[in-house]
Amino acid sequence: MENKQQSNGVMKENNAVKKKVNWSGSLIVASLTGAFGSSFLYGYNLSVVNAPAGYIKKFYNETWERRYGFSVDEGTLTLLWSITVSIFAIGGLVGAIIVTPIVKFFGRKCTLVLNNVFAVAAALLMSLSSLAGSFEMLILGRIIMGVDAGISLSALPMYLSEISPKEIRGSLGQVTAIFICIGVFTGQVLGLPEIFGQESRWPFLFGAIIVPSLIQAVILPFLPESPRYLLLEKHNTSKAEKAFQRFLGKDDVSHEIEEVLAESRVQRNTKLVSILQLLRTRAVRWQIVTVVVTMGCYQLCGLNAIWYYTNNIFSESGINRETIPYVTLSTGAVETLAAVFSGLVIERLGRRPLLIGGFGLMIVFFAVLTVSLTLQNTVHWLPYLSIFCILAIIASFCIGPGGIPFVLTGEFFQQSQRPAAFMIAGTVNWLSNFAVGLLFPFIQAGLQTYCFLVFAAICFAGATYLFFVLPETKNKTFQEISQAFAKRNKVTLEMQEMNHYVGERKSSEEQESNFTSSVDNGETKKGIV
Description:
disordered C terminus, membrane, D-glucose transmembrane transporter activity
């Protein structure tokens, strides 16, 4: 009876801990500031080139004519414009490749701060290209901006996953996706004719990039570094404890310190692993495959095709071409609202239902869109069904597939493996992005409206894989997630390590006692695990 009462007491205490999640001011500011200067700019640069496309092509033609005395032919102009748009993905791939040594040496927060150098340089090059009469400056700026995006889309999810309590890790991780959507929507709004969508003002669209970068560069240095990075990689216990206290908004962070120490015991004497070492590690084999699948589907599921068709479908439905830019804002608004909704419910519903359900809904609406586009000239109301399908596909994407892949990458891997894992995820992301930009025109030309069936098939393959392989990860530690994958990886959790932990429990308590006393004395001790 006494044991039962004690058990009930522990359960109540655990439930109270789960309910009491501290959204401290530092945690909120760090997530918003980090995302505003990072994922926001990625989304912004995806949409910002759409509105001034005609003016930029005219600038290219005028520059060419001034240099060589004749107008550029249509094929060369199309090639230059295609390079301008797609080169962003090449820069992103470079950023994803170089991010691992940068976050290892500088840390997560400092990487985000220093990354603003790329953003500011890119903004200056692109905004001054018209004044300088050099379209090469615009192309070079797009490359550099891509490098910035490639670094930030790895460093930001890494930072957010390491500063957030596991109870809200999914919600905080969705900040990345939410700000991508807000960035896309902002690019659409600023591209309106009343703002910067005019021939004389289009350079300001690129100059605006400086604003989020400077805000992040000013605010983020006053916030703590990732406490996990400080404790596990820098062995700075004093700063790690202070960082936990600021992010969690409480003085007693012994439980959080113990969780990190428990992970460090399992991986003690393990240095930061390389990509090859990670790929050779049997214990994370299916985690890597799952990250590759989710990141590949993230780019290959057809959302870029949706953006391509939007203006044509709106035009076919009878909407005036002058008013199409304003109607297009509805797509950005739906995208943002769906991402916010996902952030609010992810800790209740979990990652699996949102991710698999999102792909499932996209399959349905892709099928309906294919039918409506094929028959829209025969039935007068079908173009409106096409518009609904476009908005529904965008919402379905943002509910799950649009942000959860970044969350999963941060949850699947332990501290020493995380940078290499994000490099793999980023490489797949940007290569898939480039492939879509390169291959979609040929797919569209060959299949016409039936091209959406290709994307439906990709969504189906992704959803099927995730249904059978992906475990639920909400509110779970790294060890618990590893346990869920252990059978599929054909490994057992290192029982020797667990026995070793039990056998060394006494000595561990002595180490933690030394840790506490060192903090109390204001000292910093290294190698405590």
